[in-house]
Amino acid sequence: MAYETPEPKKKSTGDVSRALLRWYDKNARSLPWRIGPAARKAGKRPDPYAVWLSEIMLQQTTVATVAPRYSEFLKRWPTVDDMAAAPLDDILGQWAGLGYYARARNLHKCAVEVAACGGFPDTEEALRELPGIGQYTAAAVAAIAFDKRAVVIDGNVERVVSRLCAIDTPMPAAKPVIKTQAEKIWPQKRSGDFAQGLMDLGAEICRPKSPSCLICPISSACEALAQGKQEYFPVKAPKKEKPHRKGVIFALINTKGEMLFERRPEKGLLGGMLGLPGSDWAPVPPSKIFESAPLKARWNHIGNITHTFTHFHLMLDVYIAKAPKGFRRVADQKWIAPSQAKLPTVMKKAVSLAMENSRGEK
After folding, report:
1. Half-sphere exposure of 345 (CA within 13 A, CB side)
2. Where is the HhH-GPD domain positioned along the sequence (predicted)?
3. Backbone angles phi, psi at 303, to 5 degrees
4. In the annotation, is 55 catalytic?
């Protein structure tokens, strides 16, 4: 008599969450901002301030980049009250190089508001009312800091859930579908651990390329694996080519070797950060190149720098000049030694080029 080999039993939604949590208990990553499962079991609870700070810093930034910078922030401002009492310029200076500078301004605004209220609220709804906290961050803080049942969807979670359910809707249109499916497996208890477990699974096992399906704790429930199409998900919409923008920027140097910097407008890209004076990032007719210069001078063109932002490529022509005697800066400008200026990356590139060509300008 012939016998058929039975197919493996599919995991239920409850089985998925239990299997994931068992895996997380044994394999959780050690991160500076995380209270691991063993510590939580022993009664240690996360500091909402530390969770919030890490989540803001991790937006559009890698763990490897954030980890050392997070420790620097926490050492300088150990509590939300400390951050609220700090000048905005200090926060912006410390943030230099992390990108998406609106986050730094909102970080300070949020700290001021939270300190005034005596602490962070513990619900998604209340957290979303705070500056700089959107749907994802509110869910992450509610789940991780307060263990509320909040569905936390980041890039790693999107990948895991889209594969688990073989969601073939292209991103970003698939986001609501992914959240609906995630809600079905999200446990009532240990919401924060489950969220971090999914994130770790996406980072360590369910990677974009060459996922380690043989050691995945929820592989028996994975529709993508069953179809042999793990790397097909999540489905990506065709990429649009990034536009190119241009502009001009001016490095004015005084007899001390300092450069003239100015504070950029609060709104817009790099808002509130220090930078060199320059034009808007749009093509500048030759006849109007020097209209955005800080003064009339013998400006020498020394080359250009390029930088890629999330949505466009930028090229800036860099000009350099020596400050004439009697030049007076305006209120929002400062003379600063280039090595002491806290600058975003694109401005660091321009300053570096200017320094390489500054002989004879002092």
Report:
1. 10
2. 57-204
3. 130, -165
4. yes
Q: pTM for the complete prediction?
A: 0.77
CATH of 13-232, one of 1.20.1070.10, 1.10.340.30, 3.90.78.10, 3.30.870.10: 1.10.340.30
* pLDDT tens digit at each of 362 positions of the chain: 443 433 445 556 779 999 999 999 999 999 999 999 999 999 999 999 999 999 999 998 889 999 999 999 999 999 999 999 999 989 988 998 888 888 999 999 999 999 999 999 999 999 999 999 999 999 999 999 999 999 999 999 999 999 999 999 999 999 999 999 999 999 999 999 999 999 999 999 999 999 999 999 999 999 999 999 999 999 998 888 899 999 999 999 999 999 999 988 878 888 888 999 999 998 888 889 999 999 998 999 999 999 999 889 999 999 999 999 889 888 889 999 999 998 999 999 999 999 998 765 55
Any residues with CB less than 8 A from the CB of 4 and at least 6 apart, and which?
Answer: none
Q: CATH assignment of 244-356? A: 3.90.79.10
Contact present, 351 and 334 (Cβ < 8 Å): no
Q: Active-site residue among 7, 55, 241, 258?
A: 55
